[in-house]
Design brief:
heterodimer; A: 163 residues; alpha+beta; Arc Repressor Mutant, subunit A; Alpha-Beta Plaits; two-stranded antiparallel ribbon; 6 helices; 6 strands; B: 407 residues; alpha/beta; Aspartate Aminotransferase, domain 2; seven-stranded mixed β-sheet; 15 helices; 43% helix
Chain lengths: 163, 407
C-alpha cells in the first residue's frame, strides 16, 4: 500500500471526522485525490465503517462486557472459519479473534447485565457444536480502548503565550 | 530608605519590558481561547522518557552531577550530534549540559563578551538574545531580515552591520518566529563574512530536528567553523521536553571551559533526573521524535494553506513550528490585530513586532496545536477577517476619542 493511502487511513482511524480538505492540505495533495482514495477504500471494504469511541460507564448506562476464551474443534476444510462465523453472527458478539496459545477464539460479548451475558454464553455459545469449552472474564473497568484513554488526566498544561 | 527601584542595576533597568507580557495577561484573562501563541510542543513528553525519569527517582538518583553533566549524557549527545548533523565533539572537554539552551545562550555570551562588545543578532528573533547580550555587558546589534527573502539572513546585509567592535554573530536557524531555515549555500556565504572579520559564532539550533524541506545543516559542520563556534541545542523542542530544562552547549574546549566556570558557580548542574530522561530520549527516542516531527510537518502544510486561502500572504516556513503570515493587507498594525483577534475571535497569536521591528505587520502562529484546534482557530480567524470593517471603525473611534494614545 502506498504511504499516502496508509497515512489517510491512520488519520481517519484517529479521527474519522477530519475533513477531507484538511487531510489534503496536511498531506500536500489535491482534495480530489483524497476524496477518490477514501471512496475507493470504502468500496473495497478497507474502511468498513465510522464510529465514535464512547465511555458508556460515564454516560450512565449500565453495560457489561465479557471476554470469553473459547476452545473449539476445528472442522475439516473450513478450519476455524465456519465456527467463528456461527459465533460472530450473534448481535451480542462485538468482536471475534482467532488466537494463538491456550485457546482458539477470543469472543467479546456485550450485554446489559452479567446475567444476560452469562445466559448467552450458557445457552448460545457453549451449546454450539464444536465448542469444547468456554472461560468467561468480565471486564471490571475500561481504562483505554482503541488507543483512547478514558478520563485522561493529562490536559494541556502550557501557558497561553510563551516566547 | 532609598527606594529599591533607584538602586536597581542600570544594566537591568536598561532592558525593556517584555512585549509579550501585556499580551499574555490579556490572553490568560480570556475564557475559551484557542492559543496559537505557545512556543512549545503540544505533545506531553513521550511516556518512555518520563518513565526513565520515574525509574531514576525510584533508584535514588537525586544528587548533583558533575558540572559538565552526566558522562553518559555527554556521550549520548556526542553520538547524537555526529549521527544527525555530522559534527563531532569530545564528551569530556567539548560538551556542557546546560539548564535548557537558554542557559547556554547566557553563559556562551558571558564567557566571551567584554563591555561594549557588539553582538550581531538577525531579527525578527527569539526575545532572549538581546537582553542576554545586555546582561553580559555587550551591545546587541540587530540585523534585519525581510519577508521578501523569506526571512533568511543575507550575507551582504550582515556585513553592513559589522564594526571594529563586533565580536560575535548569534545565529538561530530554524528560526523562531519566522520558521526560516538556512541551507548549506546560505551558510557558506555567512561563513565567508565570519572568516573575513574573524568573528565568533553562537548558533542556537534548538529547532534543528524540525526542518521540513531540506535536512538541517549545522553551522558548526562547515569547514573550520567548529573552532570558533558554540553550538546550542537541547531536548525541549524535538523531544517535547521543555519543562525538563536540559540543553547542550558544544564548542572548542577553551570556550566551553570558560562556560563551565560560570556554570559551576551559578547553576552547578542540570537536574539529574532530567538528565537521565534525556539519555533515554537521545539513545532510544528516535521513533517518538520522528513521529512528532511528521505530525508537525502535516500541520505546517495545513496552516500555510489555511492562511493563503484566507487571502493572507504567508511565506513557507521551512522549520520550527511557527507560521508567520503577513497581515499588512488588512491595514491594521499587528499588535492591534492580535489584540482584537483575541477579544473578538478568541484566538491568541503573538504580534510580530515583539520579535523585532522586522516582525511588524506579521503575526506568529504556532502549529504546536492539535489539528482540531487549528481547524476551529481558522474558522474563527476567517470570520474575524470577514468583519474587519467593524474592527477598523472601532479602533478609529477609539483613536478619535483619545482612548489610545502612545503605544
Amino acid at each position: 500500500m502506498d504511504s499516502l493511502v496508509k497515512r489517510i487511513l491512520q488519520l481517519l482511524q484517529e479521527n474519522s471526522r477530519l475533513p477531507k480538505e484538511a487531510i489534503a492540505d496536511m498531506l500536500g495533495v489535491s482534495r480530489n485525490e483524497v476524496a477518490a482514495a477514501v471512496d475507493q477504500l470504502e468500496k473495497n471494504g478497507i474502511i468498513v465503517g465510522y464510529s465514535a469511541v464512547i465511555n458508556w460507564e460515564k454516560a450512565g448506562y449500565d453495560q457489561v462486557t465479557a471476554m470469553i476464551d473459547v476452545k473449539v474443534t476445528p472442522q475439516r476444510d473450513a478450519g476455524f472459519d465456519a465456527i467463528a462465523e456461527r459465533i460472530y453472527r450473534f448481535p451480542e458478539v462485538k468482536s471475534v479473534y482467532l488466537m494463538s496459545g491456550a485457546y482458539d477464539l477470543s469472543v467479546v460479548v456485550e450485554g446489559r447485565t452479567m446475567k444476560e451475558v452469562a445466559r448467552f454464553v450458557a445457552e448460545k455459545l457453549s451449546t454450539l457444536e464444536h465448542v469444547v469449552s468456554t472461560t468467561t472474564h468480565f471486564i471490571l473497568k475500561k481504562y483505554k480502548q482503541d488507543g483512547v484513554i478514558f478520563d485522561d488526566r493529562e490536559g494541556d498544561q502550557r501557558l497561553v503565550i510563551t516566547p | 530608605m532609598k527606594s529599591i527601584r533607584d538602586r536597581l542595576s542600570p544594566v537591568v533597568r536598561a532592558i525593556p519590558p517584555s512585549g509579550i507580557r501585556r499580551f499574555f495577561d490579556l490572553a490568560a484573562g480570556t475564557e475559551g481561547v484557542i492559543s496559537l501563541g505557545v512556543g512549545e510542543p503540544d505533545f506531553v513528553t513521550p511516556w518512555r522518557f518520563r518513565d526513565a525519569c520515574v525509574d531514576a527517582l525510584e533508584r535514588g538518583y537525586t544528587t548533583y552531577t558533575s558540572n559538565r553533566g552526566l558522562p553518559a549524557l555527554r556521550r549520548a549527545v556526542s553520538d547524537y550530534l555526529e549521527r544527525r548533523f555530522g559534527v563531532s565533539y569530545h564528551p569530556d572537554t567539548e560538551i556542557l549540559v546546560t539548564v535548557g539552551a537558554s542557559e547556554g545562550i547566557d553563559v556562551a555570551l558571558r564567557a566571551v563578551l567584554s563591555p561594549g562588545d557588539e553582538v550581531l543578532i538577525p531579527e525578527p528573533c527569539y526575545v532572549s538574545y538581546g537582553p542576554c547580550v545586555q546582561l553580559a555587558g555587550g551591545v546587541p546589534v540587530y540585523v534585519p531580515t525581510r519577508a521578501e527573502d523569506r526571512f533568511k539572513l543575507r550575507a551582504d546585509t550582515l556585513e553592513r552591520f559589522i564594526t571594529p567592535k563586533t565580536k560575535v554573530l548569534l545565529l538561530s536557524y530554524p528560526n523562531n518566529p519566522t520558521g526560516a531555515t538556512l541551507t548549506r549555500q546560505d551558510l557558506e556565504q555567512i561563513r565567508s563574512i565570519v572568516l573575513k572579520h574573524d568573528l565568533l559564532v553562537i548558533t542556537d539550533e534548538i529547532y534543528a530536528e524540525l526542518s521540513y524541506v531540506t535536512p538541517h545543516c549545522s553551522f558548526a559542520s562547515l569547514p573550520n567553523m567548529r573552532d570558533r563556534t558554540v553550538l546550542l541545542t537541547g531536548m525541549s523542542k524535538a523531544y517535547a521536553m521543555t519543562g525538563w530544562r536540559v540543553g547542550f552547549a558544544c564548542g572548542p574546549k577553551d570556550w566551553i571551559s570558560a562556560m563551565v566556570k560560570i556554570h559551576q558557580y551559578t547553576i552547578l548542574c542540570a537536574p539529574i533526573m532530567s538528565q537521565m530522561a534525556a539519555v533515554e530520549a537521545l539513545t532510544k527516542g528516535d521513533r517518538e521524535r520522528d513521529h512528532m516531527v511528521s505530525v508537525y510537518e502535516e500541520r505546517r502544510r495545513l496552516v500555510v494553506s489555511a492562511f493563503r486561502q484566507m487571502g493572507l500572504s504567508c511565506h513557507e516556513p521551512e522549520g520550527a513550528f511557527y507560521a508567520f503570515p503577513s497581515i499588512r493587507s488588512t491595514g491594521i498594525p499587528d499588535d492591534v490585530f492580535a489584540e482584537e483577534l483575541l477579544k473578538r475571535a478568541k484566538v491568541a497569536v503573538v504580534p510580530g513586532r515583539v520579535f523585532g521591528p522586522g516582525g511588524e505587520g506579521h503575526i506568529r502562529c504556532s502549529y504546536a496545536t492539535s489539528v482540531d484546534q487549528l481547524l476551529t482557530a481558522f474558522e474563527r480567524i476567517q470570520s474575524f477577517l470577514d468583519r474587519l470593517d467593524e474592527v477598523r471603525e472601532h479602533r478609529l473611534a477609539r483613536v478619535e476619542s483619545g482612548q489610545i494614545g502612545n503605544r
